[in-house]
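Tutorial, part two.
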Amino acid sequence: MSDFATDPADFAAARVLVVGDVMLDRFVYGGVERISPEAPIPVMQIEREIAMPGGAGNVARNLAALGAKVALFGLVGDDVAADQLNEALALEPGIEAQLVVDETWHTIEKTRFIGSRQQLLRVDRESRGKPSDDAVDALIKAALEALADNAVLVLSDYAKGAVGDRVIAKLIKAATKAGKPVLVDPKGSDYRRYKGATLVTPNRAEAALATGESCADDASAVAAARKLVAEAGIANVLVTRGSAGMTLVQGQEAPLHLQAEAREVFDVSGAGDTVVATIAAALAVGRSLPQAARLANAAAGIVVAKIGTAVVHPAELRLALHMPDPHGIEIKIATPQQAVERVALWRSHGERVGFTNGVFDLLHPGHLALLSEVRAQCDRLIVAINSDASVKKLKGDSRPVQDERHRAQVLAALTLVDMVIVFADDTPIPLLGLLKPDLLVKGGDYSVDQVVGADVVRAYGGEVKVSRHVAGQSTTATIKKLQS
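Running the prediction step on this input gives:
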């Protein structure tokens, strides 16, 4: 990584247009403890369900997670899944979605059942036929109008019908005329339909299908890429090769081989979306294609260690690139969505998750006693702190002494703490319902029944405790002592 410098924070200036097959991804998680007496199949006890944008929607999610602004266009049916997809997209900051409704169409749904860390079944619902001409015309018109406001065009082709030949030809022609890069996540065996694209990003199997080359080693991956450049009229090709890394071919230039950076591969779902999104964001802020590919390689190494169609955040990418924050402080400070991803990963390793919350204004021995006690009872400790606004509501305008960012940084610097979240609600109850920690502990001299959120945690089978009270230790007392 030493041959270039880039900061993922720059992605805030990126404007990217994504057109493609949008989907609703459902993940149903549960435990498997027995085999059905009706057939030799596992019986899964459902514990939780998650629905999120998939396909082109996941490309948009990855772009937004990096800080880019995204215009997303695709086709949906007139159905409940479309409503749920629109609702999910509305919760994603940075994404402006315009999904064209085709009454002859069924919104694409993929439901994955995951039990005991293993995917047991996937159920797909989608239309078999082609979308209506009117819907395709409306999609093209809307996308062309949005092109002027975006620096890069991404065509996310899952071969589901939204990105047909007519859509591809018109959008590539318009983007090329405007001097804007076109990135394609391709499908099928005939890449001539992507003629004029700046970059296509097939995986190893896709490149082999399109060219007849095995892509089993560097030489055959390069041969496949050069064949696509020569025969399909594509400027550049990036072959993603799983554990073998990536191979970038730019015309007749020397190929660039990037070694895989994943330390642990848990789930490759959506990794291709992360790659094309990262490259698009990087090109949109003026990075070269090799720089963009290196960033994408690092991002892919992060996302495959997560569960489901996950995303990569700037702090994670900075850490992977060995950028500032050598002590890992910033990576510990998470948004609620980032926290969901990390908790899911911890649980996949069988780790027990503990949770405590408070203001943590001026750290004192009482705080350390609480954190030590909780950490001794779990494998991972989450500390949720009140936002500045909520602290003022609780304790008055003179508090907090330290703002939320500095309070979070101090806690994140402790080896006892694995994650810090700032929450704006009056209580941590919404966060508890989202993360479902195994253990909730509060410090103080009151009973377990008085702990805010105790009923929520107990309802899903979690444990609630009160830590021992350290007499004479409080932030209020410390402030009074300083003022005396």
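The chain is about 35% helix and 25% strand. In part three we will examine how such features are distributed along the chain.
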